[in-house]
Give the backbone structure.
Amino acid sequence: MLQTTSLGKDTHHLPYFRNMDTLFRSTLINGFRLNLSYTQELVGDVPEQLMSQQPKGFTNHPSFTIGHLVTAVALSAKIFGVPYDVPADWDELFRRKGSADSTLASGSMERYPTKSQLLNALDTRGEALILQIMNTEHSVFSESYDWKFSRHMPTKGEALAFMCLIHHSWHIGQLAEWRRFMNLPPVLRNLLDGD
């Protein structure tokens, strides 16, 4: 499971926020941590041999999706000036360069890292990104950022929110839909308080 950082896992229970910076960071960190936890839950009970099973009509399977999220977290760290350091073989296998990229996931299990390797990479990079979010000067989030959605979300903070919350959630939806197709039980309730 994901570990809490010095900001703590209970930041969403604060009765008030002293300023918008605290609200932004808390929302971003707690939302991203929820996405990371839900990703872990969605594949936690999936046997290794099913991780790269690609039913007809599905573009992505769990191995590809999680590897793709690893590259997305590394790209998110670039917002802070951290070099993109995904190994070349992972980059080639998982990174997509936009809607015109026609590369598809392969159903060949041998091409992909193990489930444990994928989840560990996502967890490690995710927690490192959270630390970067926590330790970045507030003014950096308001700086302009040139990327494919600049017209809609022109700042570093908005780009980061998109990657950590929106983009990640799109792929969580793919994992949840894949689970339903594979007749696996829902797992969202595992993340609910008091259920």
Confidence is low (pLDDT under 50) at residues 1-17.
